[in-house]
From TrEMBL:
InterPro entries: GH, Glycosyl_Hydrolase_39. Residues 119-139 are annotated as: Disordered. Residues 1-19 form the signal peptide. Keywords: Signal. This is Glycoside hydrolase family 5 domain-containing protein. Gene3D superfamilies: Glycosidases. The keyword Signal applies.
Length: 488
């Protein structure tokens, strides 16, 4: 890479990092040569899809998923775990999950993992609280491809049209092979999927949300922007460091950050991120898989990074989107507000589907720390985040258009539908929004109407009568007393 290209990358990163929540929801590429993203993958009839990932054994929260009643969810199939089973038993678990999903109104997406054919120790998956066998290059590539072909041929006619190859290969508990072995595995699986169903959507493994912090900080440090790299790293892991649950340690200086990035774990992350970009840009996949659980202020930085690294237009699918926030600083009200910003920003950036994970926290032993925050409690009680999600899901189901919007002091998104428009708008930085007229709720308390003339520090969800985007812009402008324009 030339110095000029690296300088462009660094400038774009610095812009995104320093913008924070002042960045627009609809991200505009800033680096020379950026390809950007393609039109979103939409299968459910509206302008964008949404979804939820739940623990299949935690029953009370399923009432919420059933009430929403549409969208995507996903399940993981591991070749090594089932390849030696009798044909009649090989897909028994997948059959059960597919039936449950469809009965609840959800389209199932499938992650295909090789798993650990050599036996090896299982490692804990922190997102699900289960243990996984890390994958490696298939020991019998022909048999692996035949398995993938059989899987797709069997389930494509039953509505499974979206397939991901592996999962979070930058994490030790999911991938133990070399970076190039992963690239080869993607090509093997993608070739089999494409031959079995030429219309299928094929995705990469997705980089873990924590892995992106290493990738972004390392890119800045490589470009000589030491202080910006340190600030980004500290912001990325800030919430996880509060309780010691961070995958990477707290650093207080550029020297410490540089030393960390030379450590084996961080070096491996960067190598696997590079391999994932090689796989994505090789032509093997048809969409990019996004995982993100950090402070929504950092989302524009990540979206800009993805756009810069794509060498061809690809749609982005958000398979794992949520909030990782252990510790005493968490509140249900702030989580509700951040969920409105998070989902709204992704929709404005044409990400589809946006699958929230998890539906609910799965309780464990006395030492288990709640890291990933749900939409409902383990007992099934709706949280503000769940109420916000339900509003988005209802608006998206029959939506005809989505528009990112911006105005003096804020940003947001319009979801236009045949019976009205949902406007989700929020102030930049520490500002407030004042409801001049109209009907709205605050995302932090979605069941309580906001009084006319009241000022709110967080996002507002505003119901608009207009079924046309231009009319909706005029209506929300009147409700807020500011000129709201399309495009953020």
């Amino acid at each position: 890479m030339t110095c000029k290209a690296m300088a462009g990358i660094a400038a774009a990163l610095i812009l995104a990092v320093t913008a924070g929540c002042d960045s627009p929801a609809s991200v505009t590429p800033t680096a020379s040569g950026t390809i950007g993203t393609a039109n979103p993958v939409v299968l459910e009839g509206g302008a964008a899809d949404i979804g939820i990932k739940w623990n299949w054994n935690l029953k009370p929260p399923l009432a919420f998923a059933s009430k929403v009643g549409w969208g995507e969810t996903f399940f993981e199939v591991e070749w090594c775990a089932v390849r030696d089973l009798p044909e009649a038993n090989r897909f028994r678990q997948l059959e059960r999950i597919l039936t449950q999903s469809q009965q609840m109104g959800y389209r199932l997406m499938v992650k295909i993992r090789v798993g650990g054919c050599s036996g090896g120790p299982e490692q804990l998956d922190p997102a699900e609280g289960t243990r996984k066998r890390p994958s490696s290059l298939p020991d019998d590539p022909a048999a692996y491809q035949q398995f993938v072909t059989n899987l797709v041929t069997r389930y494509s006619p039953r509505g499974v049209k979206i397939w991901a190859i592996e999962n979070e290969v930058d994490a030790n508990n999911f991938w133990q092979g070399s970076p190039q072995d992963y690239v080869q595995t993607v090509k093997l699986a993608a070739d089999a999927i494409r031959r079995a169903d030429p219309q299928a959507a094929i995705l990469d493994a997705g980089i873990s949300s924590t892995g992106y912090g290493i990738a972004l900080a390392g890119e800045l440090l490589d470009a000589g922007h030491d202080q910006e790299a340190l600030e980004l790293y500290q912001r990325w892991y800030d919430r996880r460091h509060d309780t010691g649950t961070a995958r990477f340690p707290l650093v207080g200086s550029v020297d410490q950050l540089r030393s960390l990035l030379q450590d084996g774990r961080a070096k491996r992350v960067r190598a696997m991120v590079a391999a994932n970009w090689e796989a994505v840009n090789s032509g093997a996949v048809t969409a990019y898989q996004l995982h993100f659980y950090e402070n929504p202020d950092l989302l524009p930085t990540l979206l800009s990074y993805i756009q810069r690294h794509l060498t061809r237009p690809l749609p982005i699918q958000g398979w794992e989107i949520g909030t990782a926030w252990p510790g005493d600083g968490y509140t249900e009200q702030i989580h509700g507000a951040e969920t409105a910003r998070l989902i709204g920003s992704l929709l404005a950036a044409q990400v589809s589907p946006v699958v929230y994970l998890p539906l609910a926290y799965t309780p464990g032993g006395a030492t288990k720390v709640e890291i990933f925050r749900g939409l409902v409690s383990p007992e099934g009680q709706e949280l503000p985040s769940g109420q916000v999600y339900a509003r988005y899901a209802a608006a998206l189901r029959a939506s005809t258009a989505i528009r990112g919007v911006g105005f003096d002091g804020g940003t947001g998104v319009l979801i236009v539908g045949p019976s009205g428009t949902l406007a989700a708008v929020w102030p930049t930085s520490t500002g407030q929004l004042t409801l001049k007229e109209g009907s709205a709720v605050a995302a932090s308390a979605p069941t309580t109407p906001v009084a006319t003339g009241a000022s709110v520090a967080g996002p507002l969800l505003i119901d608009l009568s207009s079924t046309d985007a231009e009319k909706a812009l005029r209506e929300v402008s009147s409700d807020l007393g500011v000129t709201v324009s399309a495009g953020g």
